[in-house]
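Illustration 12: Amino acid transporter transmembrane domain-containing protein.
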Amino acid sequence: MIEKCGRGKHLRRRQDKAIMEKNKSQSVKVDNFSSTIGLAANPGFQSTLSIASKGLPQDDKPYNPFEHRNVQHPNTTLGSILHLLKSCLGSGILAMPAAFKNSGLVAGVIGTILAGFVCTHTVHILVKTSQQICVEAKRPSLSFAETCGAAFMYGPKRLRSWSGAIQKFVDYSLSVTYLSVLCVYVVFIGSSLKEALDVYMPGYQLSIQAYCALSLVPLVVVCQIRNLKYLVPFSAIANALIFLVFAITLYYMFFDLPPVSDRVMVANVSTWPLFLSTVIFAMEGIGVVMPVENEMANPRRFLGCPGVLNTSMFIVITLYGVFGFFGYVQFGDDVKGSVTLNLPQDEIIAQSAKLIMAFVIYLTYALQFYVPMEIITRMLATRKSNSYENLIQITIRTCLVTLTVAIGAAFPNLELVIGLVGAIFFSTLGLFIPVAVQTIYLWEKDFGRFNYILWKNIIIAIIAIIALVSGAYVSIDGILEDFGRHTVINIVDENSTVT
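Figure caption equivalent — predicted structure in token form:
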């Protein structure tokens, strides 16, 4: 009996020793595998799984998306500000005097400040929501469309199945929106070239459509640039030149300025929608925001005070207010879709400003073109083969530029086209979608005290819908009226020629 007990103890010791050795071996394997250095260094693999064992100490540090970003060509803070300024300070600012014509001086100043605040706020909540989702989803960065889709995925359970459809919808909407903006740029280039060159070539006066067609080849060439970092020098050059144009334009604005009392303080309410849609078009750079933030060397500097966003938008709102107010005071109801087109035709400096601004818009075209191409490139990345990648890129870019030139030449009324694009596209993408995304993401989380975030978002959504419906109606009605007027003039001219 004693011998049997001794054998049992000896057997248990051997079993315990075997179990300890086995656990030790497994512990070593877990420790060797628990290193995340290799995974974090690979941007193509973003793990959402925790390798740590429940029996081991947990790292309570939340996921920081900024630490996991691996940007090949990061932008500096200054470069990011230049990109945002360039995306906003384009043809839109030169349309502000025409916008003030549709609002009046007092209503225009108040409306510009309010619209600027709302546009800045919607961009802010879009970026903030994207960063919050990145932490929860353990993703280093998200595009605009990915942020919208992820908001549904991490929002209410009954809406999660909509995630993929929403992401595709926003992708397609962004592409169409910025292609529409590029059409406006083509019209602006054609109008500026015609205004300047017709004076010096009276025997070879071409139509706006012809000048739009002449811009095709240069636009195709500049749009072959595929990296946002390499567009920074273009933004710097364009910003320097645009301030030169602003200086020249301001000189003519303030030269022999009429009394402010000669202008309307508050215009008829029926023209306010055109003012609002023009301001939204001018200020919104919603599609450029996420690519710029995602490619910053230090993304923490995008939001906050002063921050990249606040600094850029403060400059934008100030310049827009000055141009709109004094441009309308100087030129009154005769102001055109771009105030540079009102500059004297018999002075070289004024004519040079038109040519320089056409070149600035040419450079800006390449930056705005980056938005739809970034979306298309992501779609192409799902292909199984990378064969003919270069040829496909060149072909798509050439076809898109050609399409914008053709559409721009077909609708050369700059003021009405700007209003239509701003009303339909930017009021939806720039105002409505950001507040909808934040509302859906926070639906089962926290709307703050008294649900103030929810009520604030509802008010902005109502403003977006009003801008969409009223702005689109006024713009389309003006385009149809303008088209009918030109048709009658052409018929009269043909009859006169026959006679």
